[in-house]
Amino acid sequence: MMLQASTTFRELTDQAQIDAALEEGRRLFAGPCEFIFGAQKLGQLPPQTLPEIAFAGRSNVGKSSLINALTGRKALARASSEPGRTKQLNFFNLAERLMLVDMPGYGYAKAAKSVKEDWQEMMFEYLRGRPGLRRVMLLLDARVELKKHDTDMMKLLDKAAVSFQIVMTKCDALKPQALSAKHNALQEQVKRHPAACPFLAVTSSEKGTGIEELRAELAEFALPLT
Asked: What is the percent of the chain where pLDDT is above 70?
């Protein structure tokens, strides 16, 4: 799978271009977004008709909350009341221009070993065998230290040659100094992974922090308006 070039939104310096990109992101995510399918096995994956953006992360990292915040919905993506329970790839069609894919959470300690292995195998096969996959948004809880499961996921994405971008979640819970230190530490981590996008997204689904900017970044992967 071909790695994508670094997102261009983060490189913009002209305010007019920045404003235009933010507006494009707003318009895209203000469009209709519908759950279309949940695949528990690779053979159940829907046909690839749109560019895909996948959301990955540990159980309870905030994937569902981020997808809901991006799309302006309260319950488009539903978080399970039991961590680690979601065992399928959930596909959401965004305005017939982009497919959002909510991946199963990883790293839940109480999940059976056989279940964990099944999840990992399905995720890897999906990641390396989905030509329409443009980027994986790897969510990391800003309040929690980086875990082995996270670094293993980064290595998995490197191995599958899939471009990924770290998204820091729940950043409103940290004071500015602590948030800056965490950001810097993750920035160093990014340098170790050839598949990693150099730009980190700093977000809070509850406060709306970073949501507009992330919409603008993801809009660059969407099909153009016809």
From this structure: 86
CATH no. for residue 211?
3.40.50.300
Parallel, antiparallel or unpaired: strands 52-57 and 133-141: parallel
1 belongs to a structural domain: no
Asked, for residue 161, whether it belongs to a domain, the answer is yes
How many domains does the chain fold into?
1
**pTM, whole model, 2 decimals?**
0.88
Q: Reduce the DSSP state of residue 111 to 3 states and report it.
A: coil
pLDDT bin (cut points 50, 70, 90) of residue 108 is low
DSSP letters, 84-98, are T---SEEEEEETTTE
Helices 211-219 and 15-30 pack at an angle, to 10 degrees, of 90
Full residue range of the structural domain in which residue 107 is found: 9-219
